[in-house]
Records
---
Amino acid sequence: MAAVSRGGYYRRWRVCKPREEETALRDRLQKLALAHRHYGYRRIAALVRREGWQANHKRVLRLLRTDNLLCLRRKAFVPPTTDSNHGWRVWPNLTRGMQTTGINQLWVADITYVRLNEEFVYLAVVLDAHSRCVVGWAIERHLGSILAIQALERALAQRTPEPGMIHHSDRGFQYACLDYVKILQRHALQISMSRVGNPYDNAKAESFMKTLKAEEVNGRDYRNFDQVRESIGDFLENVYNRWRLHSALGYQSPAEFEEGICHSSGKDSILLGVGEGLTAPFPHTPFPKNCLI
């Protein structure tokens, strides 16, 4: 037996053990902060709690600040991508006050720019408003209507929404043009558009674009069109949909959130490769086909 009194043992434990635990936690926080360089302290805190650490967001903030690991975000210049000065029909906003209860009830669409060294290219996305999942996207060198049409057709190929689902967008000619509207009407989808000069009407799409710029585009130096399409496609399909944690989803990824909806509804999920493997670091897997609610 060691010649140490019980009181001496516990006094020593109170000094050493908490320091050992905090050192181990700081080491894990450093690795997570470097792996997720655009995550704020709340998402980092959610990650360590998922791994079993006892750490609230205030403690994580203190440790990240001590180690100078808080993420930095810059406000990006935003050129106009919406031209609502056209002769096409403008549809009323059907989403004001709407609360979704499942996926494939409301899709939101938007367009943004990505700057290359010598040109701008444009990205169109379609999101499921309930799960924040990117269900369709397309990248082109122009702002023509085919850009938005390609994203919509990709979304319709991934999912089969029920007649009456709402498709919401801004008033840009890409969404108001006859070719785009015909596709929506052919699938019996309701058309909804934001009010003039009111980005809050399409807040979920605007929020997604902010996340895309902060976590993928800013700080990148894309060499050419092929590289930006490959890089952003990988971010959307593998990182954002499958692994990025969303505070609005209870710090789950869109894939996890939709998987939970499928299980709770008693329906079979057709998510590809999602479930047991969600603890692995960013695998390169196909774009998920999601269960239908």
---
Amino acid sequence: MKRTILLAVMALPCLAQLFSLSKERMIELTAENPFERFPDGRPKIPDNLIERARGLSAEEVWVILPAKGFRNQYADGFQVLHPGMKLAGRAFTAQFMPARPDVEKVFPGLRNQTAIDMLQPGDVLVVDLFGKVDGGTIVGDNLFYYVMKTTKTGGLVVDGSIRDLDGIREMNMPAYYRAAHPSAIAGVMLTGINIPVRVGNVTVMPGDLVMGDPEGVYFIPPQFVTQVLDNADILHIHDEWTRKKFDEGKYKSSDIYGSPKDPALRKEYEEYLKKRLEELSRDRKGAVR
């Protein structure tokens, strides 16, 4: 079989067939992943890094990815279910297309629950529903509850809609969606699970770190996760030190921010940074034990 073929037809138990990546193709497309993998080849970012990612902001990711040439990893314009709750987890992707009878008959019985029932702890269900609102409702309150219980610390990002918002807003799982609509999902067909999908202007790969804050959602390739997190530690400490100096009431903002101009202050900051990074490293090693 030629290597140019992107999608393989994968048999699912008791179901028809749909498009997915073979394990070999998944590994090839995510070759720079430095972490372990799920049995299907999807990158498995460690749980401790996902937990650290809950402290990220979009601005902290922005510092790294565009400089690496990854300029199309951020999507916004969503409605955010819980603006005060950060989203962090591994992308589990699902692709829908507008229903077409001659194609749909090849995929009988495949629906939103086909993908939902495959979720694992730490997953974020990332759904390409091509912005559909009426009939683009990936979940209502019952299936939202199932996703919350199954992923445990995960969430939902859908380029489409949800329904039963009154019930869903009481559930403590982060979710990003285009609209709420009373319709049931209809007029669409599930065509892919854990394949590259489009959300806004982003190509999302299975296993990307999905990071959401009140502004939008970042999809971080696994190979950059550690660098993004380590750089965020430095930024957090810099902000911490800057505000401590502002609290002293002795300095103009330009004396301290963005970097101290006085050599003595610069030396003080560098010593503070070294001390705090050592403390963070020690605390994290203690938490792992």
